[in-house]
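Thread: quick sanity check before group meeting

JM: Hey all, I'm pulling together slides for Thursday and realized we never actually wrote out the predicted structure for the chain we discussed last week. Dropping the sequence here so it's in one place. If anyone has concerns about the input, flag it before I start.
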Amino acid sequence: MENITKQAKKIVSPVLLRYDNLQALDKLYEAQHNVDAIQVVMNQNIQQVMENTQDIEVISIFYNREFTNELFAQEVRGKSESMKVMAGQFEKGAHQLERQMYWRNMRLKIIICLIILSVILYIVVPIAVKFSRDNNNSENENTNNNETPQNTTSNGTLRFRF
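JM (edit): ok, ran it. Output follows.
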């Protein structure tokens, strides 16, 4: 039994080590990690732009002036709208990538469970078969001891058939 455990460890250990670092193994996981980092930076940039816009509005109110340069205001609005659209596209792509990663991870878990199940069956089935055979042999020996031999009669005299 201990020998089987050692053999199973030799087989399963490299597989577990290989899948321990998903970022090195899977390009999609690495891309997900990069997308998450970019998403954090984009959120910070959007927050900073919103703060700057609020500052500009406070300054314009403070000086009781409107934007003197209407082109500048339109350009800022245009960039703001394009950033909104890009953020929506980014969010949609991130959601799709998240779903792909979920199913890839689920598939990996199922494969590992099947491997573990097959190793367990590989160990348990031969033991069960051996135990079943031993029980059948002992039952057959018990039934053979209770039967009278075919070449004898009930009073113990030998009978021959030709």
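AS: nice. Helices lie at 2-18, 22-25, 27-62, 70-146. The chain is about 85% helix and 0% strand.
JM: adding both to the slides.
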